[in-house]
Amino acid sequence: MPQAASPRPRADARSVVIVDDHAALADSLALALSADGFDVGGRAGSAAAALDTVRRERPDVVVVDLQLPDRSGLHLARRLFERDGTQGVVLFTGMADPNVIEDALSLGVRGIVLKGSALSELITACRTVAAGGTFIDPSAQRLLKGAVDERPPLSLREREVLARVADGATVEGIADELGIAHETVRTHVRNCLRKTGTRTRAHAVAVALRAGWI
User: What is the helix (H) or strand (E) element at residue 87, kind and residue range?
Assistant: First the structure.
């Protein structure tokens, strides 16, 4: 009996490539993301295969396992960013190491999800990164949190804005929640980057979490 055809993705569907050498896990992720409206454009089990798959599929998001059989997920992310600095990458890792997480964010990774977290966190991360935002799941945020600095360089409002960035909020959403103008939010974000010495919102969030400022 012929198999039923897979539903055709919507024309506006977000696309994702999954990079993980564990086939059963990759299958589960593909099913969950497809059910959420993503077009799963391809899968790869190694960094080398992922580079070819991403080049061919041009996805909105690449979900990357940290430990791949040939190279690390961080090496793959670096190669992807060298090719396209705007590529959305979500690191999906079982390694609970704050240094690795901060390294990933400093490279330009905009989504961090620990494998011990609920699958809904990965879906939220993919949605957020596909929309151009940043998402660090609550478990990873707790992992990054350090001792509170009594004199943080960030103002209270800047810390409020950065904490919402970590949760995946957009500029518009932060402005509405705090009752301030969109451009004011952007100014606060620029100040956070400058004061933390970082280039990306995600890395600024990591620095602030490690220092206990948010």
Answer: none
Spacing of C-alpha 113 from chain mean position: 7
What backbone phi and psi angles, to 5 degrees, belong to 41?
-80, -15
Amino acid at 104: A
Report the alpha-carbon distance of residue 38 to residue 10 in Å, rounded: 9
One-letter amino acid for residue 43 of the chain: R
Hey, which bits of 5-110 come out as E strands? 15-19, 39-44, 61-65, 88-93
What are the residues whose beta carbons fall under 8 Å from the beta carbon of 34, sequence distance 6 or more? 40
Instruction: Please tell me whether the overall predicted TM-score, pTM, comes out greater than 0.85 for this model.
Output: no
Residue 1 has pLDDT above 70, yes or no: no
CA distance 205 to 200: 9
Structure tokens at 146: 């350090």
